[in-house]
Amino acid sequence: MNNEKQRGLTLIELLVGLVVMTVLTSLAVPGFQSLREQYTVRSAGMAVYADLQLARSEAIKRNREVTVCFTGLGSTEWSYQLRESGDCSGAMIEQVSSQDFTGIKLEMTGIGGDRLSFQPRRYQLVTKKILLSYEQHKMQVSTWNNGIIRTCSDHNLSGVPACTN
């Protein structure tokens, strides 16, 4: 009679462990997908917010109009440029493309079409709403005529205040 203890796992124990891990992983993946979508929307929204703040500060620093010129609005193939002019023909300060934010749709409402101009003085900015969305997740970047730029979300994005309209 052999009194040695067996070490290791049987094949059945190993297979049961793999099945449990597979079930737990399949339950967790949809939650991670939603978190990734939220992060992508928040990242794109904060990039737009930061660039609008940059355009405002560049207008003050240069003492001349700086315009954010958008192309491809209403699609996932958008881009925008910060230009040192009111008509999108001046020197380019910065350029951003949707390639950095795959799947994000960008829309804009308000007066002035596809551009947003910042003057060197306050109270000369038009009111606009820029909406970034990915699936059911949405974030809004708003500008007001007093020069204020704000972000908000009606879709419970963590780290983004709720919209109050």
UniProtKB/TrEMBL annotation:
Membrane topology: Single-pass membrane protein
UniProt keywords, alphabetically: Cell inner membrane, Cell membrane, Membrane, Methylation, Transmembrane, Transmembrane helix
InterPro entries listed in its UniProt record: N_methyl_site, Pilin-like, T2SS_GspH
Pfam families: GspH, N_methyl
Sequence ranges assigned to domain General secretion pathway GspH in this UniProt record: 46-121
Coiled coil: none
Transmembrane segments: 12-32
Subcellular location: Cell inner membrane
Database matches in NCBIfam families: IV_pilin_GFxxxE
Family of this protein: Belongs to the GSP H family.
UniProt protein name: Type II secretion system protein H
